[in-house]
Amino acid sequence: MNEIADAKHFRNFSELSRHQHRGRDFEITIRRKPGSPIAIVAPHGGGIEDGTSQIARAIAGHDFNLYLFEGIRSSSNYHALHLTSHRFDEPECLSLIKHCPFVITIHGCGGADDCVFLGGLDQELKLHLTQALKRAHLPAQTEGHRFPAINPLNICNRGASNKGVQLEITHALRRDFGAVRLAATLRHTLLSLPIVKAKPAVTQHQYAGT
Ligand SMILES: [Zn+2]
Question: Which CATH number fits domain 7-199: 3.40.630.100, 3.40.47.10, 3.40.50.720, 3.40.190.10?
């Protein structure tokens, strides 16, 4: 198993794809929702960071754009496929989010206690989501943690507004009912954003082509 190239050495998606192959090692799922200004992105889904695909799907429902990069190997998904967020430049993901002013990425981190660590350059949306999580009695932290996601190249910050929100969800919170409640709270909060309730910020024709 030592022959598996460690994804932490890859500088971009192109390097990763020289070692790992779509349909064998990973799968990409895109669900476009023309007219929605929001994209929910799980760049380490499937077996890479357990539970993040399911949470991203549950948040997006049929209302928001969805992107999943999922590890489907039988083992070593993290080792082989975890392309760090500021190097995650998978072209189909970039193509989807460039029209979305609100990009929310879903990640999983270690931790035996329930917590969401919020990062990213969109301070306003980050605050809004944090307040909603706290109202739902879901522990949330925006500062003093290891996941600030302030690198402009972090995939959460590469949407139409060049700022987004990154959620790192502890292992404890990705299990069972906690994950369901978390996804429902985030989904409800995003559906209630004034820009979502008002007329769409993005028109259909901007999505022409793939
Ligand atoms: Zn991650």
Answer: 3.40.630.100
Distance in Å, CA 45 to ligand 1 centroid = 8
Enter the DSSP assignment of 4: S
d(CA 196, ligand 1 centre) in Å: 26
CA proximity to 104, closest of 74, 125, 84: 125
DSSP states of 110-176: --SS--EEEESS-HHHHHHHHHHHHHTT--EE-SSSS-----TTSGGG-STTS--EEEEEETGGGSH
User: On the CB side of 160, how many CA atoms lie within 13 Å of its CA?
Assistant: 14
CA 166 to centroid of ligand 1, rounded, Å: 9
DSSP state of 5: P
d(CA 101, CA 179): 25
Distance 48 CA to ligand 1 centre (A): 8
pLDDT for 71-103, tens place per residue? 999 999 999 999 999 999 999 999 999 999 999
The alpha carbon of 35 and the centre of ligand 1 are apart by a number of angstroms equal to 27
Contact 36, 164 (CB under 8 A): no
pLDDT for the residue 200: 52
Domain boundaries, the chain: 7-199
